[in-house]
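Hey, resending since the last one bounced:
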Amino acid sequence: MPDSPEFLPSPAGWRLDHSYARLPQAFHARIDPTPVAEPKMVVLNRPLAEALGLNADELTDAAIFAGNELPPGAEPLAQAYAGHQYAHFTMLGDGRAILLGEQITPSGGRFDIQLKGPGPTPFSRRGDGRAALGPMLREHIISEAMHALGIPTTRSLAVVTTGEKVWRQDGGLTGAVLTRVAASHIRVGTFEYAAARGEKEALQALADHTRQRHYPEVEGGHTALFEAMMERQAALIAKWMCVGFIHGVMNTDNMALSGETIDYGPCAFMDAYDPATVFSSIDRNGRYSYGNQPHIAQWNLARLAEAMLPLFHEDEKETVEIANGLISRFEERFKHHWLAGMRLKLGLFTEESEDTALIQSLLDWMQQTKADFTNTFRDLTQGRLEPAEWHLRWSERLKRQPQSSNEVSELMRRSNPAFIPRNHKVEEALAAASEQGDLNPMQRLLTVLTAPFDYTQDWPEFSEPSGLESYQTFCGT
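The structure tokens again:
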């Protein structure tokens, strides 16, 4: 892909390239968004726009974010991919998403600009290709919260309403389009798609594209590329676990190989600590429960390894042994990242062999007492929690490191959020916006969530657990 593509001048700062479109035709289908009746801006992410090199003052026209108009240089397409959805393999594609292009930032960064909900594509499978306002605002809220928490994530540049209804099981809903920004939309499922077609040249082209786009520093063959992708996934899932985040739908088409969190459908944050926590309305067997997320990540990576088998080695037996060896390392890499994150949450600068047992004993106490995950660590940070026996062990552990109590406190404040997207506050904000057209609760919530480590603020309504015993989330399709 070219390092310095040429661009026509654009007052808004659009500089769109199309490296993904240069992959073999099988990976995409050219399609224009379907115009809508009356696009109106709901929210524009001005800081993100500026970071992308866009002039936010020139982006107030909702027509571009609805798909009625195209930004300069856009070449819209829908991406093809496959996926294991609840362990069942399916050929898929962007059924309600259209990639406009890749914005090149002033510093040379490259980010996908994708419309979510702009109408049907060749991959819609009898769907309308549309989206409702509530789920699009949920993605906006949660993705911005994740970004503020320091967790790699896709982000929302804008949400607009369409002036049209979308029809779902619960009736007619306000139609909306979200503009998603991502390092890319290359997924485990993209490799599965190439492998299922049996075209090694296309698989090779995809692997080369992924390396150039996300892992240019990786030297060596395709096994080195796989290890690098696995490392990012291990680090990402560990970060989820350290803030109590539950993705809810970890299908292989929802695992981005950039290492970003993608697809905020039935996601939520855990209140009372319980590894079996599930929120998704369709996850009846707990496949994607909080505690099962590392195992599912490894399972998904095994599917990636299977797809990449032809690239590992010419000999079939040898390539399977290589893949098995690679996958077996995931657990160790995840535990490394998880333990590092949990040490930070407890103010531990040094490493000791008994740290795992110390952490696990706290988690066991939290589960037994149904303690709130976020508030337990917040209270520890503020010196307000003292489960007597455990607290003594932790105090003795802190004494064995050279850092001062002030340094420990500062580390914990940087590592333990005071505020997360509490489920009831998210629902309140979505209801106000979708049903009453009132964006104030959402804006207030975003103000809190974009400063999650601000211990100087006392906002009890945003820190209290939801108390929603039977809370469920939905995929939004």
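The radius of gyration is 23 Å.

Sorry for the duplicate.
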